[in-house]
Amino acid sequence: MTTPLLQAKDLRIAFYGVQAADGVNLEIREGEFLAIIGPNGSGKTTFLNLCTGYLRPSSGEVYLDGKPITAMAPRTIARRGIARAFQIPQLFLDQTVLDNLMIAVAAKRGIWVPFKALDADGRRREAEELLALVGLDGEAQQLAGALPEGRRKLLDIVIALALKPRLVLLDEPTSGVSTIERFTLMETLMAALRRAKVTALFVEHDMDVVQRYADRVVVWDSGSVMAEGPPSEVFKDERVLRNVVGVA
Ligand SMILES: Nc1ncnc2c1ncn2[C@@H]1O[C@H](COP(=O)(O)OP(=O)(O)OP(=O)(O)O)[C@@H](O)[C@H]1O
């Protein structure tokens, strides 16, 4: 069997007696598009924080490509190949779309030389290529703060891709995006991930989005994995329907 791209083994962490990760075991395979679903407060974001070094587990390990990365600094984990996009995009809203991306490209190289122009060293070309990957090239000169929510999310995601990650973790990519915009956003995102050959995990509350786009679904409940499988199976599981989808 091939080594999973990411593996979480028996991760545990509690906040004031609440077990936010209660023995989480999960494998992510290269090339898959994995959805995490679960009730509010079940520990989905905590899991992303544990995988990216924002939280240190009280016990358990995280492996990337079979090598332990548990509790490394977020910056080190990002350099090793795990990038992250947030539920609320982390952008410089009063800067243009292109500048936001050029800043990300500069930061990725780990050197910030303030007296050099932002678009030096091929940064403009790299940023423009990334914008074209998600069809944001037409909005390059707009202020990030003027973009509609769906386009802002795409910009945040493409900033994560600027790191050239192997795995990207997306926290609710469609939250705050209108129902009409959601599918367009997901189609663009999926195409970009495929072209960039990036594996992705996304936390999502919209079950239509999960059903349509996820290769595999992992269901969270009270800090651990309650069920997993392809959407066609998971959405037939009565416990999932009762506890998460709320229709059984
Ligand atoms: N830094 C923290 N300090 C204290 N409690 C926390 C912290 N982070 C998470 N928690 C608690 O841990 C539990 C899991 O929270 P988490 O945000 O991981 O859930 P979630 O499944 O992502 O929820 P949602 O779907 O609402 O985003 C909750 O009870 C939350 O209040």
Automatic annotation (TrEMBL):
Coiled-coil positions: none
One Gene Ontology molecular-function label: ATP binding
Highest taxon of source: Bacteria
Keyword rRNA processing: no
Gene3D superfamilies with a match to the protein in the record: P-loop containing nucleotide triphosphate hydrolases
A GO cellular component entry from the record: plasma membrane
Domain ABC transporter: 6-247
CDD domains: ABC_Mj1267_LivG_branched (cd03219)
Keywords: ATP-binding, Nucleotide-binding, Transport
Record InterPro entries: AAA+_ATPase, ABC_AA/LPS_Transport, ABC_transporter-like_ATP-bd, P-loop_NTPase
Keyword ATP-binding attributed: yes
PANTHER family in UniProt: CONSERVED COMPONENT OF ABC TRANSPORTER FOR NATURAL AMINO ACIDS (PTHR45772:SF9), CONSERVED COMPONENT OF ABC TRANSPORTER FOR NATURAL AMINO ACIDS-RELATED (PTHR45772)
Name of the protein in question: Amino acid/amide ABC transporter ATP-binding protein 1, HAAT family
Source species: Bosea lupini
